[in-house]
Amino acid sequence: MDFMKKTISNHEKTKDNNFNLIRFIAAFLVLFSHSYIVITGDPNTVPLKLLLGITWGGIAVDVFFITSGFLIAGSFYNRKGLVPFILARILRIYPALIVAMFISVFIFGLWFTSLKPIEYLTTIETYKYLIKNIILFFGVNYNLPNVFMDNPYINAVNGSLWTLPFEVKMYFYLTLIGLFINFIEKKSP
């Protein structure tokens, strides 16, 4: 019964915590739910949506936010200061995001647009998609000019981006809360 004496925080510090399994299952459920929307273009075709008003993907996103919140809070307190925490969060999101946006715009966008390449590359909407989705603080843009116009879920290039502005804002808020807690702890006798 030694395992019952361990707290959640003890498990967070080790790899023996099943967070990877939980996140894998949640990722599968998101893909499962999104597959119905992508194929039909109708969010009401997702299993459980009409019956319960929620989808497996919705449940999975909640699981992601809960587990990520727990892990990020642990990361904040295990880092040796604010700068390493912020740097770790930037490196967690932005390198892959920037690469994904450039591939989306300049490879897939060029390939799938119904516009001529010069029209596509000179349209302001192309660069709005790129810049807004890299910045993230002002939401995301799902549409590239004339890309995926014949799909059931028309014109959406990367619907999964919707979570990233929330993630970035939560990092920001956690940083502010952590700074406030550290300030209070330093002022306490």
Cα distance spanning the termini: 39 Å
Beta-sheet strand percentage? Answer: under 5%
| Helix/strand class | mainly alpha
Give the total of domains.
Answer: 2
The oligomerization state is single chain
The helical percent reads 55-70%
Say how many strands there are.
Answer: 0
**SSE order, one letter for each helix or strand:** HHHHHHHH
Q: Characterize the main sheet.
A: none
Average pLDDT number = 85
Count of separate DSSP helical elements: 8
Unreliable spans: none
Shape: globular
Radius of gyration: 20 Å
Brief overview, please?
The protein is built from 8 helices and no strands. The chain is an all-alpha fold.
Overview of the molecule:
The structure is a single chain. The protein has 189 residues and is mainly α. It folds into 2 domains: 1-78; 80-189. Helix content is 68%, strand content 0%. The chain contains 8 helices and no strands. It has helices at residues 8-12, 19-40, 49-52, 56-78, 82-112, 117-122, 124-135, 163-187. Helix 5 (82-112) runs antiparallel to helix 8. The relative contact order is 0.10. The mean pLDDT is 85.
